[in-house]
Amino acid sequence: MSESHRILKQVFGHTEFRGTQSEIIQRVLANEHALVIMPTGMGKSLCYQIPAIQMAQRGVLAERPGVTLVISPLIALMKDQVDSLVSKGVSATFVNSSLSRRDREDRYQQIANGQFDLLYVTPERFRKPEFLAAIAKREIQLLAVDEAHCISEWGHDFRPDYTRVGEIRESLGSPPTLALTATATPEVQADIVLQLGLQPDQVKMFHHGIERPNLELRVEHVWDDDRKLNAMLDVIQRIAGSGIIYFTLIRTLIQFSDSLHEKGIPHLVYHGDLTRDSRRSLQDRFMRQPGQLVLATNAFGMGIDKEDIRFVVHAELPGSLESYYQEIGRAGRDGLLSECSLLYDQRDLATQMEFMRWSNPDAQFYQRVYDFLINDLEQINSFGVEWLREKLHHKQKHDRRLETSLAMMERWGVVGGTLHPLNLSVETELPPRFTDAILVERKLKRDQHKLLKMVEYANSEGNRKAFLHNYFGLQLSDPAS
């Protein structure tokens, strides 16, 4: 039995590797680079966790003890992942903004002193001199970049600080690098390699495809809310077990929740307007109790690794095939048959078009927001977002371009401070990505293309799995499946 296999069995409780996990691990242990595209729930994390344990057991240079560094955008998941590893006897920790200043300082000292074999951080952490000083005392044996599609502007969840990962990697001594994601189109795959500062021939691709034979993909065209409710009831009553019904709008979620209550259908409700404690409690209940139904926005998903979800219903059209695929990927992780139904109402397209407008302010709007921040910062911090919204677009209270503008400016370091509660400072001038109309328009066209492909999928009369494979640049191994 190999050392990797022994760790798999004794630490993680699995008897066999899945797919190419073993090959990926051996490549990493040989100090080579890899890009892994593997469906959610299929074991991406083991591809760097097992090498991290093995590398720690090998021993390291006395002056600079080794560590595996995991860059991830998911603060909400880091504690859960680390707690799970620690419960298995793995020396792991995280550093992020959820820690108090005192706890962060203590952890920096522990890191500098050589503690921990596995360290989870966000890319934003590399802005902090104290962290840089601590990590400089360690030998980075492996750099794992989770949710690697965030590196690419072509990706569906682009994070500006991820654009620095190539620079970060170089500053760490260009260690062996493992990039991992669940979904990436061919353009995104190429961009990940480029942004990491690597050449294509240096990186081996491990593409597990998106083939989930046990998922039955269905699309039902509905024309009004009554037909949509009846379609939901059909799935709920026909399929036993846990399920998720996804909505785009909170108000629509609540409307259908009321309708299900009237029908005597018990369920949970999860959305971003709930308190953090409420969301955590609801998620824990869904995970622990069998046969739970939850109505949720896409805020529900991170950390959901429940094996026996028997159905996922999209009650409203998602904005992209990437988002859709990630969400249906939560069904049937135990390998048993599960159903994924999209209820397509053409009226929902208008909702997505409005979302797209909100998430793509034009260059003139960005400039107006910035001018207010420069000239009226004290009033903005005193009277809040609603005061500024009134100045920008008067009575259009449902317009969310302001929230997008402030969030993007925060991501790119244009403003500092906090958005919740509002206490901002202006740090830099607006970069070209906000002021260049051509760049702003290019982002809008990318989003429009993604939505178009989502609509084409909904209207496709052919093999929907083949449609998905073609979108992600793959071939379906069995065209009949």
Task: Itemize the secondary structure elements and their pairings.
Blueprint: H1 3-10, H2 21-29, E1 33-37, H3 46-58, E2 66-71, H4 75-87, E3 92-95, H5 101-112, E4 118-121, H6 129-135, E5 139-145, H7 165-171, E6 177-181, H8 186-195, E7 203-207, E8 215-221, H9 225-238, E9 242-246, H10 250-262, E10 268-270, H11 276-288, E11 293-296, E12 309-314, H12 321-328, E13 338-344, H13 347-358, H14 363-375, H15 377-383, H16 385-393, H17 401-411, E14 415-418, E15 423-426, H18 432-435, H19 437-459, H20 464-471
Parallel strand pairs: 1-6, 1-7, 2-4, 2-5, 3-4, 5-6, 8-13, 9-11, 9-12, 10-11, 12-13
Antiparallel strand pairs: 14-15
Proportion in β-strands: 15-25%
From the alpha carbons, calculate the radius of gyration and give it in angstroms: 23 Å
Helix percentage range? 40-55%
Q: What is the CATH architecture term of the largest domain?
A: 3-Layer(aba) Sandwich
What do the pLDDT scores average to? Answer: 89
What is the helix tally? 20
- Major sheet, described briefly? 7 strands, parallel
> Cα distance, first to last residue?
36 Å
Shape: globular
